Amino acid sequence: NHLRKKNIQKCRVKSDEATFERNFDFIERTLKTAHDELGSNGNYDSFLEVVKALQKAKEERDCIKQELKEKRGDLKKLEYTLYEEENLYHKKIAETMSDIGKIKDEIEDFLIENEMKLEYVENWQQSKIETNEILLQKKEEVKMVELKKIDVNTYREARVHQEILAAYSEMEKDTFSEIGNWAEKYDRDYKELEKRIQTLKEEREKQNEAMLTLRKTYMKRQKEMDDYKLYKIQEEEKKIELKKRNDAATKIQAWWKGTMVRKGFGKFRKKKDKKGKKK
């Protein structure tokens, strides 16, 4: 930062010197031009124009200076911010290096611990293998004893199997003999059943014929009863109709008689009194 500031100051000095030389040359040329114009024309219009231009340039330069001043202020702020950030980054780098050292130590401790664990696991694995070999050998001995027992049992089962086959052969002979007896019995029973079935068929045919005769008789009697019921119903309807007519005639006669009495028709007409004789 110190070197940067020195370089900036040197650049500013050189820039100021160059600016001074340019301004001096410009003033010298302007005054010479005004002197020549005043001697030849008796006025200095060109000089006035130059002055106006200088005033305008001065105003623009003042604006530029103001902007430059503001920019320099911003530059200082940025330089300060850069300085702060550099310090912050240096601190972070230092902290990171410290963390890296710690991590490196932890990795070394971890590797040492893993080597110890690996050695322990290898010893434990070897011990386990030896134990398993001993257990396997004992299991093999037990299995050999069991195999011997199985051989003895197999021999016994084979002998029992032969005895069972012999007994089964005898039973098969007896079974075939019994099957023959049952076949003869089946034939006898079948013939007897056929005879009984034939007898039952004949009896059923006789029953069907008797049933048909009874059905015809029943239908005939039923028709006679239905005809008689129909006759009775018709007679009853005739009686009811006759009674209705008689009742209606009686009512009509009574109504007509009442009407004749009220109106004085027929024999119920009232006789008028005879009028007196004329004088």
Automatic annotation (TrEMBL):
Localization terms from the record: Cytoplasm, Cytoskeleton, Flagellum axoneme
Gene Ontology biological process terms from the UniProt entry: cilium organization
Primary localization: cytoplasm
Any coiled-coil regions, as ranges: 54-81, 183-217
Signal peptide: none
GO cellular component terms listed in the entry, alphabetical order: cytoplasm; motile cilium
InterPro entries xref list: IQ_motif_EF-hand-BS, IQCG
Keywords associated with the record: Cell projection, Cilium, Coiled coil, Cytoplasm, Cytoskeleton, Flagellum
Similarity field: Belongs to the DRC9 family.
Protein name in the entry: Dynein regulatory complex protein 9
Lineage, top ranks: Eukaryota, Metazoa, Ecdysozoa, Arthropoda, Hexapoda
